[in-house]
Fold each of these.
Amino acid sequence: MLEVQNLHTYYGDSHILHGVTLSVQKGSVSILLGRNGMGKTTTLHSIMGITPSKQGKILINGKEIQGEPNYKVSKSGIGIVPQGRRIFGNLTVKENLLTTHRPYKDGWNLNDIYDMFPRLKERESSMGGNLSGGEQQMLSIGRALMTNPKLLLLDEPSEGLSPLMVREVIKIIIHLKNEGLPMLIVEQNLAMATSLADHVYVLNKGNIVFDGPSEEFDTATRNKFLSLSS
Ligand SMILES: Nc1ncnc2c1ncn2[C@@H]1O[C@H](COP(=O)(O)OP(=O)(O)OP(=O)(O)O)[C@@H](O)[C@H]1O
């Protein structure tokens, strides 16, 4: 589904990603773990063409997208739920959802999003900026789904949420997975990550230092490379 090979990304002269290679298989969830500042967001932004990589290959369903601008990557079927939600605070819930809608036969539409998140229906006329953190996260996920992605990237979806809301987000991700949507998730909450992952990657200073099925993600690796909440 998604193949990322030997990605090198820089901010100016700072070499951040040193040959990142990872993949997401059809219908599966891959998790990217790592301490703060290790390059997780940069990896997602490189895939999306937001922070283009200088070297490497990115393929979605066999189609090369490395070097494509962000709008083309998005059009090729990759959606993102960004870190910090990034919803439009001065647009209503409904407007937030409609701005990204890319109609697709049998794809997501407004009513599907409201069926999945009844709370967003209740708040459809409220300004995005007036929503709670949990509601904003629902809106951010809903907005990404409105692009009808074939693959979804989520950057720390549990960040800043209450334990109750984290459980809600886990439920939603499991639901989407069961519907066959492949996902690449950056996460700091280890309990959440391990409850969702089919495959785990650990990033350390821009290098993948663990790559394996979640059953093989061992305590030694965890202790060496992560300082995560459990
Ligand atoms: N716009 C930028 N300009 C320069 N350096 C940056 C920029 N964004 C990130 N960096 C640096 O790149 C490195 C990787 O950052 P990145 O945000 O990808 O890490 P991360 O693993 O996602 O961490 P976090 O969990 O804190 O978001 C860090 O050293 C960071 O300071």
Note: The mean pLDDT is 92.
Amino acid sequence: MPPHASPIANVSSSPYAPKYTDSLSRLTNWSIIESTLREGEQFANAFFDTAKKIEIAKALDDFGVEYIELTSPAASEQSRLDCIAIANLGLKAKILTHVRCHMDDARIACETGVDGLDVVIGTSSYLREFSHGKDMERIIKDATEVINYVKSKGLEVRFSSEDSFRSDLVDLLNLYKAVDQLGVNRVGIADTVGCANPRQVYDLVKTLRSVLKPTTDIECHFHNDTGCATANAYAALEAGATHIDTSVLGIGERNGITPIGNLIARMFTVDPDYVASKYQLHKLRDLENLIADAVEIQVPFNNCITGYCAFTHKAGIHAKAILNNPATYEILKPEVFGMTRYVSIGHRLTGWNAVKNRAEQLGLALSDDDLKAITGKIKKLADIKNQSMEDVDGLLRNFHAYKVAGDHSAIEQLLVLPDEVIAAAPKAVAA
Ligand SMILES: CC(=O)SCCNC(=O)CCNC(=O)[C@H](O)C(C)(C)COP(=O)(O)OP(=O)(O)OC[C@H]1O[C@@H](n2cnc3c(N)ncnc32)[C@H](O)[C@@H]1OP(=O)(O)O
Ligand SMILES: O=C(O)CCC(=O)C(=O)O
Ligand SMILES: [Zn+2]
């Protein structure tokens, strides 16, 4: 095995793999703040009753997330009761609740039994003018009061600037320095409208890292409006962020945030053993199915790891190489996640090596010439419509039976397209 190779991943031979250790990087030392029960509740379809919230919290805890973030107890009486119920489950994960930078919210939240508060306030001019109406001086004043109060209760506190990437950098750094001096556990950066790209994220996190105490953690929250939520999370960790907000399947306000499964897939390629040591990877599919059912959506077909064709190989060139060595076209090993690989055969992009493999699975001894002839027949049929595995198996079995019987004319017959198939074919094919 090449240096750094892992028996659970196919990532070791990338010529672009990091060749030196970047002192800022937290790519191999990071935590998840799982926000399905906060950001996820902001998804248009989401309604979680208490029992469902508890089931989700337990499933997240089983999976191994470090933190579970809950909707503000100020949102409604039931939200408050649910916060208390989940804070009292005795889970391994730390329980946080997410509140406005306001003493009313902080007081209610501190009485719920959670481990910590994620405090947020918008800092962009859009939000200062059109949301809460406070200037930077007032934000720092309110932040100071809330943070001191939460700390006086002995709880963990994170302070975050909503819409960080449309906020003035000098304003942001002044605010973060002020809250850092107050002794927050973490500061947060939020790409609330999904406008940031990985390079901007890297720059902002790196700058922030340089002004904070080394012991202050950095949490990042990325919306996916322009498709960068997972890449931005990766860039943030490269630049020294310590915590990433996720939700299951990425559910959240609008089209949501970094999906936990995407983050796992991405980070697995960096340090598979580290990721496998923290999270119960084979439970990811059940976790996603739980949320998909709860909010009445399908797991997307192209979901990382668990999408229904995430480990399906189709084109003949791919199929041959995959059958020889799965590392050729797979960066992740399906079995690590409790998934299985599938080679699709019954289509016009198939190749004789894939057909040979299927014949071997069926225990049918056929020569290479036989298999090439059968492949030709599959392609002719598949030019009209894709063939099922049963169709392909039937063809292989019949060919084999005629061969054993020495019935050459039956084989010839088998290899031509029947008249009724030609007649039923679309005109261009029949001609
Ligand atoms: C980007 C994000 O996702 S942040 C998290 C979003 N989460 C939520 O909104 C939680 C669910 N929200 C709710 O249940 C309600 O909005 C509540 C309970 C928080 C507030 O409800 P209401 O008092 O009816 O106010 P409303 O929702 O209409 O407006 C928000 C109020 O919070 C203020 N506000 C907005 N953001 C903040 C903030 N970060 N810190 C302090 N105050 C804020 C606004 O100025 C406004 O105050 P106003 O009542 O003086 O106008
Ligand atoms: O609290 C935070 O950091 C993030 C809040 C949020 O959901 C957002 O800004 O999109
Ligand atoms: Zn958000």
Note: The chain has two domains: 31-294, 312-430.
